[in-house]
TrEMBL record:
Pfam families, per database record: PTPA (PF03095)
Catalytic activity: [protein]-peptidylproline (omega=180) = [protein]-peptidylproline (omega=0)
Enzyme class: isomerase
Name of the featured protein: Serine/threonine-protein phosphatase 2A activator
SUPFAM superfamilies associated with the record: PTPA-like (SSF140984)
Keywords for the protein's UniProt record, in alphabetical order: Cytoplasm, Isomerase, Rotamase
Lineage: Eukaryota, Metazoa, Ecdysozoa, Nematoda, Chromadorea
Length: 378
């Protein structure tokens, strides 16, 4: 894509009224399609599978490895009463912002160097926020957008999808976990036990795809700590659960209520599709998350040409149906509420997923089970 006019990305979602243009943008459509391609490429594929890595992929992994080595060299600052956020993290982020252009220049082919003006923003935004010293699914999304942009300019292609997930993204997770644990980073926008995880989301999507077709592991299996430890190396999903088990104490159903609920889903294919719906609802359609997104020529805020125009007949229920308007879901693992500003049109082909007690699929419910309170609308 040499000769293309690249630009420094800018924020476009400045209030809730900008959500509709985002839902119908090229960025939303192309990014979601990219995630589906990545997801499909790892269905039934173990993390430890023998995958060919090109010299470019190895260079990327080495570059991420160098970032991880920075972490070990930064001494922690003395904190007295702070539970989260060691200010020493800011030294890491300052160095990242300073050296990122050169790091990308070293690993990217020469024909992609013009795009660094756009790529560097997504790359530096991938590792947390220096002001709040926090990290969340929005930062994780920036790294995936970074990979999306690299594929869009031809640095990677569809044949590299497995490598992007199981090698580069997997290494990125290791770096972020190192940051989270050393600097005690605060979960960005965490809803506590009502979120799927304090920090990550995408590995649960890709990891559930890896487990589709497994004859030995069912969703209920990851409630067993020994099973998770034995198979964490095979799936990003189980690897994330293993990390949770290592860093959290107390009953699993208390500190990871949403994940505990998911374990009642009968098979991994349904878990995987539910994860995508939840990702849209809890990440891509949440103003507190997407207000921090940046848009340029590669990740474009322009309206998609594939948007299907709708009218009021498509939106309103039949007048004589005898059925009341469907109430939005209040709670439940795969439930989400489409923000009211989007009610004037259908948001892609997504539907509001009704809440349900997934744990009722079990014969014996946990005595302390309870539904989380309704989600507050942004």
């Amino acid at each position: 894509m040499s000769g293309k006019a690249y630009m420094a990305p800018e924020k476009k979602i400045k209030n809730v009224f900008d959500l509709n243009p985002w839902y119908f943008s090229k960025a939303y459509e192309e990014y979601l399609a990219f995630l589906h391609r990545l997801n499909d490429s790892v269905i039934g594929v173990h993390t430890t599978a023998d995958i060919r890595c090109s010299p470019l992929v190895i260079d990327f992994i080495d570059m991420l490895d160098s970032l991880e080595k920075w972490i070990d060299k930064i001494p922690l600052e003395e904190v007295s009463e702070q539970r989260f956020g060691n200010k020493a993290y800011r030294h890491f982020y300052e160095r990242l912002c300073k050296e990122a252009p050169e790091l990308l220049q070293q690993v990217l082919p020469a024909e992609a160097h013009d795009a660094i003006i756009e790529l560097v923003t997504y790359f530096t935004e991938s590792f947390g926020n220096a002001t709040r010293i926090d990290y969340g699914s929005g930062h994780e999304a920036n790294f995936l957008i970074f990979l999306f942009c690299l594929q869009k300019i031809g640095v990677f292609n569809n044949e590299d999808n497995q490598v992007l997930v199981l090698r580069i993204f997997n290494k990125y997770l290791r770096v972020c976990r190192h940051l989270q644990t050393k600097f005690k980073m605060e979960p960005a926008g965490s809803r506590g036990v009502h979120a799927i995880d304090d920090f990550q989301f995408a590995p649960f999507i890709f990891g559930s795809a890896q487990l589709i077709g497994s004859k030995n592991l069912v969703p209920d299996s990851y409630l067993k700590k020994t099973v998770v430890e034995a198979h964490a190396h095979t799936s990003l999903f189980l690897d994330c659960v293993n990390f949770i088990n290592q860093t959290k104490t107390g009953p699993f159903h208390e500190h990871s209520n949403q994940l505990w609920n998911i374990s009642a889903v009968p098979h991994w294919k349904k878990v995987n599709s539910g994860m995508f719906k939840m990702y849209e609802g809890e990440v891509l359609k949440k103003f507190p998350v997407v207000q921090h997104m940046f848009f340029g020529s590669l990740f474009s805020f322009d309206r998609s040409e594939n948007v299907k125009e709708t009218n009021e007949e498509d939106i309103q229920p039949p007048q004589n149906s005898g059925m009341p308007p469907r109430a939005p879901a209040q709670h439940g693992m795969f439930a989400f509420k489409i923000p009211s500003v989007a009610n004037s049109s259908t948001v892609r082909s997504a539907t509001v997923v009704e809440s349900g007690d997934l744990r009722s699929l079990h014969t014996h419910k946990h005595p302390e089970e309870h539904c989380p309170p309704p989600m507050a609308e942004p």
